[in-house]
Each structure stands twice: as C-alpha cells, then as structure tokens.
Specification:
Ribosomal Protein S5, domain 2, two-stranded antiparallel ribbon, 3 domains, 14% strand, alpha+beta
C-alpha cells in the first residue's frame, strides 16, 4: 500500500504542487493539508482520495507559491489608529515615553487584514486536474512496486513447493530409520525368537501413520495453488492472501510437529523463513 505521486503546474499566476503518499494501514486514514481557500472542496477531495488510495495511511498536500505582487494584505487603518490612541493614553498614565507607538500598533492583532479570496470554478478544475495527475503517478508507483512484490510471491511459493518435494527421500529414510530403531529397541528387551513379526509390522505401521504428513503436504500444495489464483484477482486480494498464508503456515507447523527428524526439521525451517517473507510483503498489498 505504500505509494507516492506528485504533480506540479501553473494555474493563473501561481505555481501549484500536489503530493499524495501512503504507508501501510488496515484502514483508510487521511491527513489532508490544503490552503483555507480550498476548504469548501475538502469533502470532494476526501471522497476522490478514498476511491483511489483505497487503504493505507495517506498524506495529501496541496499548496502554491504566490507572486509577491499578488499580496493583498492591507493595513486596518482605523484599528491601528485606535491602538495608537490607547497606547498613547496608557504611556501618559504610566509616565512612560510614547515614541514609536505606530511600530508597536501595527504588530497588534488584526492590524493587517486581507480580503476573503473567492475560488473560481475554472481555476479549481485545473487544480483538480493536477490532483488527478498526482493520483495517476501514485498508481504508477504502486504498480511498479506491485510487480516486484508479485515476483517475490511467485518465487517464495515456488521455493515452498520445491522444499515440500525435497521431503520425499527424507520421509523414505525416516520410515526405514523408525523401523530399524523399533526393532533394535525391541531386541534389547526380548529374545528375537519371541518377536511376532505380524505384530511388529502392525506396530511399525501404527507409528508411521501417526507421523505421516501426506495430508498436510497435499493441503499445503492446494493452498499454494490457491495463493497463485488469488494473486490474479486484482484489488482486494491482500486480505485473501493473508488468510491463505495463515493456512499455509498451519500446514508447515504441523509438518514440523510431526517431523521427528532433524533433516526434515531443517526443510520446515526453510519453509517458515520463505513464508515469513511472504507475510511481510502481504502488508503492502491492497
């Protein structure tokens, strides 16, 4: 959800700049900073930004550079004269010098005033065009980042699939190791002639079934396929990808709990590492 877009342009005698940027957040959280003249347009701007940004902590800035010749500040002469009169009376009553009262008066509240500026609709249309351009650049930024994230997802899921396939020879070795270990332990306790081979095979089969991970691997493969499908869904896929990533994590954790083998555990740790990378990037997906 991170993104950045900027647009600049001359409208009338002013140079306007528009910036839109966002960071990860579960909801749409907007911080808009605009000159007071655009206050009447704020609700429309918020609606537009919500529809384009969708989700994230968004900062929106609209500002302009004004030509000094445009300054419309005027001295509020009646008020300044009133200040001078009051200051002079106060100086006289307190036996203070009354020099340079004018300089002090013009610093008093409302000594300078500016007429209320009206926003012309034609001017706003051009500014709105700059806002749209900034949002288009914002979307392009997200698109580039999204392509990189998609490549990371494809790579991560592919690695998890490959690691799952790498379990095949290890599982075969584990089954043989379990059989040998049980027989060795049994022979240490009782005479080999008293071992019931049928019962022995049943016990070995029972133990192997308890640690069998065929179902987990099957569900893991299905979740990986589902993850690939969701990536092509477009906007709104982020939360779905998060849910599927949780399911992938559950299957990997179960593989680890049933591993009972150091080599298999190493594979599981690598799977978890790839999944954590995927989860971190999911935060950047809408």
């Amino acid at each position: 959800m991170t993104g950045y877009g900027k647009a600049e342009g001359i409208v009338g005698s002013r140079k306007y700049s528009v910036e839109v940027r966002s960071l990860n957040s579960k909801q749409f959280d907007l911080n808009a900073r605009t000159p007071s003249i655009f206050r009447e347009k704020e609700m429309g701007l918020r609606k537009l930004l919500r529809s384009r940004v969708i989700r994230g902590k968004c900062d929106f800035f609209l500002f302009y550079e004004m030509d000094p010749s445009e300054s419309k500040h005027e001295i509020n002469a009646p008020l300044v004269l009133k200040y001078v009169e009051q200051l002079s009376a106060l100086a006289e009553a307190s036996n203070q010098t009354s020099s340079d009262l004018l300089a002090l008066a013009v610093k008093m509240p409302d000594a300078l005033q500016s007429p209320r500026e009206e926003l012309e609709e034609e001017v706003w249309k051009e500014i709105e065009g700059l806002v749209t351009k900034a949002l288009d650049n914002f979307d392009n930024f997200r698109g580039v980042e999204g392509s990189a994230i998609e490549a990371d997802f494809v790579s991560g899921i592919s690695i998890i699939r490959t690691l799952s396939a790498d379990l095949d020879p290890l599982l075969e070795v584990r089954a043989k190791r379990v059989r040998d270990r049980i027989r060795t332990n049994l022979e240490d306790v009782i005479d080999t002639s008293r071992i019931d081979e049928n019962r022995f095979e049943q016990e070995v089969l029972f133990y192997i079934e308890k640690t069998d991970v065929a179902e987990e691997r099957s569900r893991l493969a299905a979740h990986c396929d589902h993850f690939d499908e969701i990536m092509s869904d477009g906007i709104g896929a982020g939360k779905k990808l998060g849910f599927v990533a949780q399911e992938i994590g559950r299957e990997i954790n179960t593989l680890g709990s049933k591993a009972n083998d150091a080599d298999i555990q190493r594979i599981v740790v690598k799977m978890k590492d790839e999944l954590e990378k995927i989860k971190e990037q999911i935060l950047n997906v809408l």
